[in-house]
Amino acid sequence: AAFITGQFDQYENFSPRERDGLLKQIPSDTQVQTQYCSCGSANFMIRMDQAPLSDVRVRRALSMGMDRPKAWLAANDGYNAMGMPMSFDFLGLEFFVSLKTAGPTNQYNPTEAKRLLTEAGYANGLTVPIIMSSVWPSRWGSADLVASIQEAWKKIGVTLDLKIIDGLQDASLR
C-alpha cells in the first residue's frame, strides 16, 4: 500500500505475480523500472570435496536431471535467468546465458542423467543432503522450487535429504 500511494519509492524482493499486480494499481504516470528478472534468489552450494558430489558425473547428472523450466514455473511464475559464476560481460559474452545457450549439461535429459549415475556407481540411486535456511521457505517460491527439484530428481533415482536450519546456522556455513 505504501508503494502504491507514493509513500516510498523502492520496493524489492517481490514475486513476478506481485510485481504485475502492483503495476496494475499504481498511477499510469508513475515511472517504474524493473529488472529483467525481478525474482528472488536461491543458491545451492555443494561440497565438491566429498562423495558423491566429488564425482563430476554425479554433478552433471543432477544438473541434467533438473527440469529448469518446470522449477522456474513453480517458484517464479516462469521467470528466471541462468545462474552464472560471474557477469556475462566478464566472460566475453554479448548477452546473458539462456537455457538454450547454456550447453548440454544444463538441458533436462533424465536418460543421460541416469546413465551418468550408473557409470558413477549409483545405478540404484543415491541420497543427496540439502541444507536449507528456515528463512528461505517463507520467501515466495523457495519451498516450491525445492519440491520441483525433488520431484525431478526422484525420476532419476535421487532422493533429497532436506534439513532445515535456522538463519544463524546458515550464516555460519557461508
Task: Summarize the SSE layout with pairings.
Blueprint: H1 16-25, H2 56-64, H3 68-76, H4 110-119, E1 126-133, H5 142-154, E2 158-165, H6 167-173
Parallel strand pairs: 1-2
Helix pairs in contact: 2-4, 3-5
Question: What is the β-strand count?
Answer: 2
Please bin the fraction of helical residues. Answer: 25-40%
How far the N terminus sits from the C terminus, by CA atoms, comes to 35 Å
Strand order across the biggest sheet?
A: 1-2
- What coarse outline follows from CA principal-axis ratios? globular
SSE order = HHHHEHEH
**Low-confidence blocks of residues:** 36-40
User: Any idea what the radius of gyration is?
Assistant: 19 Å
Mean pLDDT: 76
How large is the count of helical segments?
6
What is the percentage of strand-forming residues?
A: 5-15%
- Biggest β-sheet: count, sense, barrel? 2 strands, parallel
Structural class: alpha+beta
Summarize the model shown.
The chain is of the alpha+beta class. The protein is built from six helices and two strands.
Describe the model.
The protein is of the alpha+beta class. It has helices at about 15-25, 55-65, 70-75, 110-120, 140-155, 165-174, and strands spanning about 125-135, 160-165. It has a two-stranded parallel ribbon with strand order 1-2. β1, α5 and β2 form a beta-alpha-beta unit. α2 (about 55-65) packs antiparallel against α4 and α3 runs antiparallel to α5. The longest helix is centred in the C-terminal third of the chain and has 13 residues, at about 140-155. The radius of gyration is 19 Å and the shape is globular.
